[in-house]
Amino acid sequence: MFEGIKKVKKLGICGESNHFYDAPKCLDNLIYLAKLEAIRILLYDRYRSDFLHRHPVPCVGSFPPNLKKLTLQGTHLLWSKLTIISKLPKLEVLQLKALKLFGDELGETVWEVSEMGFPKLRFLLIEKKGLKYWKATDDSFPCLERVIIKNCRSLQEIPKGFSDSMALKRIELWGCTPSLVNFAKEIQEEQESFGNNILKVYAYDTI
After folding, report:
1. Hey, which residues does 170 pair with through a beta bridge?
2. Which of 188, 172, 127, 122 is CA-nearest to residue 153?
3. With the CA atoms of 77, 155, 190 and 206 taken in that order, what torsion angle do they form, in degrees rounded to the nearest 10?
4. Per its UniProt record, what PANTHER family does this chain match (predicted)?
5. Which neighbouring-strand residues pair with 95?
């Protein structure tokens, strides 16, 4: 599918959802773009505007080895399948925008990041998700500098391990609950008690 553009470094894929139903394995060909560093995948339905569609994300072996930036919009993804993305060795920027992520077999929308998950990630954006629980170890996100959470109204806490992060500089909360804002500020205060004044928390349009 991607013959002739094997040297491309940035790629955007945008199309109607039914086209991807007709070719469900087309995204698996991304592996052949060895030089690709940034990709944005946007799937939409002309009859709907909320981008809540069910489309599979490629397996980790299908992503190019040098990928540094990944934006997913309008794709179907179980929270548990984010483990696939966490294994990308060079990923620095991850944006999960205006898409529907689904819970596990019990219906729980839990994102549990494994030890040393996202080893190089520096920037994370989560927007409009049904996430309720976000768990991570102290060794998850070791390089994360900036987190933006938008309209995650069911999320009450962010990983407590962030209080031990020396890399984290900024947490932005947009349209989130007061309890989530307070939890983030507690993490900031805990870091300050250790003499680390780098982390700042910003809250906008708190519901």
Report:
1. 146, 200
2. 127
3. 120
4. LATE BLIGHT RESISTANCE PROTEIN HOMOLOG R1A-3, TUBULIN-SPECIFIC CHAPERONE E
5. 71, 125
User: What pTM, to 2 d.p., does this model score?
Assistant: 0.85
**What is the number of residues in the chain?**
207
Burial of 74 (0-12, 13-18, 19+ CB in 10 A): buried
Residue 139 per-residue DSSP state: T
Amino acid present at 133: Y
Pick from 144, 94, 86, 145: which is nearest to 118 by CA?
Answer: 86
The span from the CA of 46 to the CA of 67, in Å, is 30
The pLDDT profile of the chain, 207 residues, written as one tens digit per residue, is 555 677 889 988 887 655 555 444 666 777 788 889 999 988 766 544 443 344 455 666 677 889 999 998 876 666 667 788 898 999 999 998 865 555 554 445 788 888 888 999 999 999 876 788 898 887 899 999 999 999 998 898 999 999 999 999 999 999 999 999 999 999 999 999 999 899 999 999 988
